[in-house]
Automatic annotation (TrEMBL):
Amino acids binding Mg(2+): N10, E387
Active site: D151 (proton donor/acceptor)
Catalytic activity from the UniProt record: acetate + ATP = acetyl phosphate + ADP
PROSITE patterns: ACETATE_KINASE_1, ACETATE_KINASE_2
Complexes and interactors: Homodimer.
Organism: Streptomyces zinciresistens K42
Pathway, per record: Metabolic intermediate biosynthesis; acetyl-CoA biosynthesis; acetyl-CoA from acetate: step 1/2
Protein name: Acetate kinase
UniProt: ATP binding residues: K17, H211, L212, G213, N214, G215, D285, M286, R287, G333, V334, G335, E336, N337
NCBIfam families (alphabetical): ackA (TIGR00016)
Length: 404
């Protein structure tokens, strides 16, 4: 029997998203999510054959990513899709930080694991969870290729002028400080899907991709190649996020240490976990923020306005970086679902050729779609991301190559 299935694991700081795909047709045999890992109120939601089967839920404490993956393996086994299946060709893992070394999907061995571990200080919320996912999967199926697909890979094409910070070159090089960029799997997938939506080849299209999830980042993609992105050494820089501040004056950190008497660890936690929308109004979920705005809540309104102001600045900046822009693509949880965010982000940018058609923008639909008025110079599009499919495709291509 030829093994044609790939299990994809996307481990976040407190969540584990997974999909089992059949690579003959990209069909989903199972999808699921474990949330609030490490809390007493963890929840696993498992859906066999996405769309078809009945979802099952488990609640109750799931201590860590090791326990989460074991619970997922049990759910898969209940549907006859267990990790022991001979039809499983590989397990593909999203790994957030690959530094400069990993520019391609990579089969994991001990040396690769050690390098992912070395990069923990520059992806403290993500790489530890990614590592646990890989180690547990390896223990469950030691014979199976485990493939790491890196968030940073797509951004390695950025020119030095975009990737280097203007700090002392020797210090920067010694500590490998530069802009790496993240969510690359999504930026790659969405920029290609946007070109397809326009009916053009990726090489002919310049796209600004706005990946607005809990973490959020923008990228400027010229002819299929990333030329700039908003996240930096770590996934903290750039846009306002669910709990992360995005851009601040770096001197804020010195000030908090000297005048606010905070430790570096406390400031790290402040900027990564207690800032962004949460820090501004107490909520990180855009649905909740919109609900509060509708009720006249001023703090939620200001948080939304700050979020939009930053987004607009990046759209303007990337118009300047690209020179010619063919499309602006909104993606991920907020980008795909929050019509008011898309409308506000391009409001007043008609000089740049950007506008949305209110009806098209407000309409609900599943697939990629254009929401700018007919004949607009720049297409504004909603393009659902599919990091899992992209990871599965890259994983299967690599394993297939190794086997042929
Ligand atoms: N219907 C919706 N309307 C507005 N925002 C939404 C909606 N659904 C999801 N979101 C936003 O999307 C976020 C999650 O996005 P997602 O891309 O899944 O993030 P992540 O992968 O970082 O967990 C939520 O925190 C919420 O702010
Ligand atoms: C890199 C990053 O920010 O990822 P996420 O949005 O999954 O937190
Ligand atoms: Mg995400």
């Amino acid at each position: 029997m030829t093994a044609t299935r790939v299990l994809v694991l996307n481990s976040g700081s407190s969540s584990l998203k997974y999909q089992l795909l059949d690579m003959r047709d990209g069909g989903r045999l199972a999808v699921g999510l474990v949330e609030r890992i490490g809390e007493r109120t963890s929840r696993l939601r498992h859906t066999p054959s996405a769309g078809g089967g009945e979802s099952r839920e488990r609640t109750g404490a799931i201590a860590d990513h090791d326990a989460a993956l074991k619970a997922v393996a049990e759910e898969l086994a209940r549907d006859g899709l267990g990790l022991d299946s001979p039809e499983l060709a590989a397990i593909g893992h999203r790994v957030v930080h690959g530094g400069r070394r990993f520019t391609e999907p990579t089969v994991v061995d001990d040396a690769v694991l050690a390098e992912i571990e070395r990069l923990i200080p520059v992806a403290p919320l993500h790489n530890p969870a990614n590592l646990t996912g890989i180690r547990t999967a390896r223990a469950l199926r030691p014979d199976l290729p485990q493939v790491a697909v890196f968030d940073t890979a797509f951004h390695t094409t950025m020119p030095e002028s975009a990737a280097r910070y203007a700090i002392d070159v020797e210090t920067a090089d010694r500590h490998r400080i530069r802009r790496y960029g993240f969510h690359g799997t999504s930026h790659a997938f969405v920029s290609r899907a946007t070109a397809a939506l326009l009916g053009r080849a990726p090489e002919d299209v310049n796209v600004i991709v706005l990946h607005l999830g809990n973490g959020a980042s923008a990228s400027a993609v010229r002819g299929g190649t990333c030329v700039d992105t908003s996240m930096g050494l770590t996934p903290l820089e750039g846009l306002v996020m669910g709990t992360r501040s995005g851009d601040v004056d770096p001197a804020v950190i010195f000030h908090l240490a000297r005048v606010g008497d905070m430790s570096i660890g406390e400031i790290d936690t402040l900027l990564n976990k207690k800032s962004g929308l949460t820090g501004l109004c107490g909520d990180n979920d855009m649905r909740e923020i919109r609900r509060r705005i509708d009720e006249g809540d001023e703090r939620a309104r200001l948080a939304f306005d700050i979020y939009i102001h930053r987004l607009k600045k990046y759209i303007g900046a990337y118009c300047a970086v690209l020179g010619r822009v063919d499309a602006v693509a909104f993606t991920a949880g907020v980008g795909e679902n929050a019509a008011p965010v898309r409308e506000a982000a391009v409001a007043g940018l008609d000089q740049l050729g950007l506008a949305v058609d209110p009806e098209l923008n407000a309409a609900r639909a599943d697939g990629p779609r254009i929401v700018s008025p007919a004949g607009a110079r720049v297409a504004v599009a909603v393009v659902p991301t599919d990091e899992e499919l992209e990871i599965a495709t890259q994983t299967y291509a690599l394993v297939g190559k190794a086997n042929s």
